[in-house]
Amino acid sequence: HRYRDPGAGDKMDPFAEQEAWENYQSGKGTLKYGSRNKQAPADYEFVLEDGIDFIKESIMDGVNFEDEMSSEKPDDSTAKNALQKLQEERQTLPIYPYRDELLQAIHDHQVMVIVGETGSGKTTQIPQYLHEAGYTKHGLVGCTQPRRVAAMSVAARVSQEMGVKLGHEVGYSIRFEDCTSEKTILKYMTDGMLLREFLSEPDLASYSVIMVDEAHERTLSTDILFGLVKDITRFRKDLKLLISSATLDAEKFSDYFDSAPIFKIPGRRFPVTINFTKAPEADYIDAAIVTVLQIHVTQPPGDILVFLTGQEEIETIDEILKHRTRGLGTKIAELIICPIYANLPTELQAKIFEPTPDGARKVVLATNIAETSLTIDGIKYVVDPGFCKIKSYNPRTGMESLLINPISKASAMQRAGRSGRTGPGMCFRLYTAYNFQHDLDDNTVPEIQRTNLANVVLTLKSLGINDLVNFDFMDPPPSEALLKALEQLYALNALNSLGELTKTGRRMAEFPLDPMLSKTIVASEKYKCSEEAITIASMLSIGNSIFYRPKDKQVHADNARMNFHTGNVGDHIALLNVYNSWKETNYSTQWCYENYIQVRSMKRARDIRDQLEGLLERVEIEPTSNLSDLDAVKKAITSGFFHHSAKLQKTGAYKTVKNPQTVLPRWVIYHELVLTTKEYMRQVTELKPDWLIEIAPHYYQMKDVEDASTTKMPRGKGLAAD
Ligand code: CDP
Ligand code: MG
């Protein structure tokens, strides 16, 4: 295969651009965009009023096949069934010409690093190739994904390509949802699920191949998996291990896996014009909306991909775009808006992959998931506000937060690249070239270095890995964070003073939950309220999507919600009340509508609860209900969440002056702390301070709860209950 630079016409190495980037990163060179390709695409002009001024800054070189893989499809409207078409599509993927070479390399090497651009076919094709080559005769081919949505959607795609029912030969496994069967030979799963599989099968005996996909994402679970699978390959010589990644870091992976060979799949990429804003944008949401409309009105056909930080932002933009385009009526072409984020219901996910009808344009509003995990065909324009939500952790305070942060340069490159898959693309960065150069880090810090490790430490301990300091981490976590995790698990009585797993710890590890929640469940045995504990745990596990608050019925919705709080029982008991009331109506959908509750979330909670019930049995905790003693339930919660206690300060100084004696410090326990513009607690329940001493005497002393000046409050003042 020979490649041609579409601009200059000279021969170039398909990986030149990537190598330039890698050199730049390692300080060996400077990064020049467009040094080779001076030919700019057609000029464009924005005509909308109040548009944003962009300056065309650079062109990211693309790589084209010399023989111009024709994008024109032959007229195949007749008699060709969908399966055949899919088979043909498979053969047009960049990975296809390397199929045999790749299989040979896998045959020759036990461990291999595979690098190829997003969309080249790594995730969907490699497991199928392995199946075709016979690897599934000796065991499963497992492929891990950092994201649930990716695992599900890729499995769905592959089952279509193979013409089988999802869950049969091709399945997926994500937390609380196992869509596999006896028949399954190709199994897509989240990296966290494979980690849990080590608990029941420490040598992964049922697998013949493990593909750790999207390795560049460096999620916590992926990083831990690296250490575990590397170890297994030493004594299971029959196990093949593939580490696959969308460019970058290949050398690092190879070094870590004892110099494993790197297989590069040359990409097929078109040039991407990069535009920066002339001046910084104060409101990137607004800027994104304006830019989408600008593109829609002024640019030739091609779909738009907008990178946003989360569900709420996506919903906001979705709504505003709908409103504005409705206002423009038939003056503009149809704009089909497709959101995609982790909690998007499965049935709506398929929509983003549907081809755009003629005359219309699709705009995909996505989280980071579309950066490398999912490829959506037909994207020609990328709008990149330059932000993503990043988890960070302060080991000193033990506080974890999810904050909107600028992305890294590597991310920005990936995002831009999404627009040049099927033809020349354009990327609109809603920040200045100066920002890009000076304010963005080169790479995102691996999650292991910015997260609470309690969960992972508990898993590793239950795998019998005691010496965590000498665990083979690719990048070790800060020792402070490791220590804090050990301390926390010790405080939860999951570890003894020697750092060994206790019986409580062993039971906790059975639950696929945060240690604080699993401790709540294990402690509920003592308070005879295990039924309530698993209900609350499952309601908390579905996150923030239980209550539904339509804009035009907010008062009704809020009133309905308050009914569950009668008696000022706190948020946890309110969740319990919601579930139990729903159960009393025999899980009625109508009841959900009437109470402004999302029926889908409730069904999921029920499903999770069923699974937790099964796990109760496994750890031999009797299902008992203690509804008449809500304090007992709250004590069980406190047993898990005493780290999350706070003393509420009355912020109303006026009241304090007038009635000083009524201002008793109120203590609460919260599920999580959310940092947005201001930190607030989510899911709060009041507790009696004595409980802290009764339940966690090793953690709290009398003076902590008596003396107003010493509190275990995480951040001092400024905390407001949500
Ligand atoms: O893993 P990698 O990024 O290399 O590519 P992939 O996910 O295997 O995607 C290969 C092709 O399959 C892309 O052209 C996607 O458009 C298509 N695909 C799809 O149509 N639907 C999915 N759910 C996943 C992939
Ligand atoms: Mg992939």
UniProtKB/TrEMBL annotation:
Residues 291-464 form the Helicase C-terminal domain. It catalyses: ATP + H2O = ADP + phosphate + H(+). One of its GO terms (biological process) is RNA splicing. It comes from the Eukaryota. Residues 103-266 form the Helicase ATP-binding domain. It is an enzyme of class 3 (hydrolase). GO terms for cellular component: catalytic step 2 spliceosome. Its EC number is 3.6.4.13. GO terms for molecular function: ATP binding; ATP hydrolysis activity; RNA binding; RNA helicase activity. Keywords: ATP-binding, Helicase, Hydrolase, mRNA processing, mRNA splicing, Nucleotide-binding, Spliceosome. Belongs to the DEAD box helicase family. DEAH subfamily. PRP2 sub-subfamily. This is RNA helicase. It comes from Zingiber officinale (Ginger). The chain holds residues 267 to 988 of 988 of the full protein.
